[in-house]
Write a structure and sequence with these properties.
By secondary structure, the chain is of the alpha/beta class. The chain has four helices and three strands. 43% of the residues lie in helices and 12% in strands.
């Protein structure tokens, strides 16, 4: 992560670390402070095809995902293209849900709890006095 300004504009984040690199996992852990709490995220452990070099357990990934309050999966980008696409599509779905909630919340605030305006004839088509 390149600082909080890089995260502020994002609609959603795929937080990807290598299961063979403790440093990448620690960077993701530190990034939490820079992520807006309502930004949809999915935590992805990559390189599961290199299990013999694993430094981060699946349990550690699951715990971090719970801390981030997000989904978690492990993939091999080199071998499991469909799993990578599924993670991306899951994130897209979460972004759409968050946008709908945001729009509804904005609409509720704008209406102030009153009924929606019932569209009728415009004043411009009514006869003038």
């Amino acid at each position: 992560m390149a600082g909080s300004e890089a995260v502020q504009w994002a609609d959603g984040l795929l937080l990807i670390y290598s299961i063979t690199d403790r440093r990448s996992f620690n960077l993701i852990r530190k990034a939490k402070a820079d992520i807006q709490p309502d930004t949809p995220c999915i935590l992805v452990g990559n390189k599961v095809d290199m299990v013999h070099l694993r430094q981060i357990s699946s349990e550690e990934g699951e715990i971090l995902a719970k801390d981030f309050e997000c989904k978690f999966c492990e993939v091999s980008a080199a071998e499991h293209v469909i799993q990578v696409a599924d993670a991306f599509h899951d994130l897209c779905r979460e972004v759409l849900v968050a946008r709908r909630k945001s729009k509804q919340s904005l609409l509720d605030r704008m209406l102030g709890g009153t009924r929606a305006y019932s569209r009728g004839k415009s004043d411009t088509v009514l006869p003038k006095d």
